[in-house]
Amino acid sequence: MRRVRRVPAWLGGCALALGLAPPATAADGAACLPPLLQRLGWQIRESDVTAPVVHGGEPCRRASLDDARRHGDLQVQVPRGYAGALRERLQRDLLGHPATLCAYAFQLGDAARRAATQLQDNRGYRFSALQLGWIGFGPGGARAQGWQRFRSFGRGYAPAGSNSAAIEAFYSGRVRSECGVGRQVAQLATQRELYGDAGFDREFAPGELSIGTFLTLHDTPSILLGGNAGEFFADGKAVRTARLGRQAFMGVPGFIEHVFDKRYLDDINNQAENFVITDVSAQAADALARHGGFSYYDGQNRRLWELSRQLPRAGRRYFERLLHERDPALRAAVPEAQRPLLAQMDQVLADPVYAGLMLYVHPKGIRPLGYHIARLLDRNPRTPYSIDLALHNLHTTLYQRWLQAQLRDCAPVPADIDERG
């Protein structure tokens, strides 16, 4: 296990206040500060104040940037005529404000949804069981789809040409992998969508976009788990993430995993499901904050499993059809004596987290948490499942790299932003 590096202190709480050091910037990045802040949602207005007044608000709790603006988040008042070095210093301080990270999370969430939608819509991207190899590029081989192998048995590949063309193979080519690689690809595709093709090709070296077994990535310069990952944020049960609000979940990777020992598994290929979070409803975010993250839902998953053991299964995908699809004929066929059990299961699944926490899992696409829990009752009926966030650097190293790229490469623009008084 890789050592978890120190993370910024503000990630341990939900207070949105100045306190982060602004990122180091290129000397010529000053002209890029105003348009970047504007794109992130900050509104700077001159008014009759004697010193800048910064109100970050709570954008991580909002549904969108427009919603944050309606709530008055991301607002700054500056004295009239506030300019020069003082203004530039304020703008750099705003890049270090915690609310800026939440504003970035809106763009990250949009990128994750675009990436996941492209991946799920590619019928040529299919699942391979572990024993068949982690990744398969078909008869044409890896190079034909923009990848080169650096480990045997499909355990390690890196882009062979342009980074964007390599990811495109998973959007439109014929590829096979298990769900762990599916998660990696979704994470990398999110960065492609965030940067655009030109930026994605320019900002990352091929080795940084390695895919393969998780252990393989540790020995590469991977931005996910390797040498260039930088600072990790460890929050397995989402305690701190839930405290911050719904946007803090956007694009975050994780896994649903069996609780009991492997001898209780009937379907080894469904021992775990690796995911990337694409959305969290307001109700689900409130419930996660109220219950303090995922530990409560591990208990609810256990309760669903215990109840399922008392219901006689009939046919394939029984619980998936009964609980998620709510098949009327199947529900009507539940014996009268077992209907109180079904009612209890329905009550557990009525919690908004089961319907409002949206996960991309290869090859199932984007579906709510409740679907996966019901499905796994069918696949491995002798064990309950738990849910965890994986180590990630979306809010640390990758965030800082994105900021640096925006400051370095912006087109010349006017220096002032949104100066309506």
Structural descriptors:
14% strand, 421 residues, single chain, globular, disordered N terminus, disordered C terminus, 14 strands
Explain what you see.
With 421 residues, this protein is an alpha+beta fold. Helix content is 41%, strand content 14%. The protein has 16 helices and 14 strands. The chain has helices spanning 33-40, 65-70, 84-95, 98-121, 163-172, 179-203, 214-217, 239-244, 282-291, 295-308, 318-324, 328-332, 339-349, 352-356, 369-379, 397-409; strands spanning 43-47, 53-55, 75-79, 125-127, 135-136, 147-151, 156-159, 175-177, 211-212, 253-258, 272-280, 357-361, 365-368, 385-389. The chain is globular and about 75 Å long. The termini are far apart.
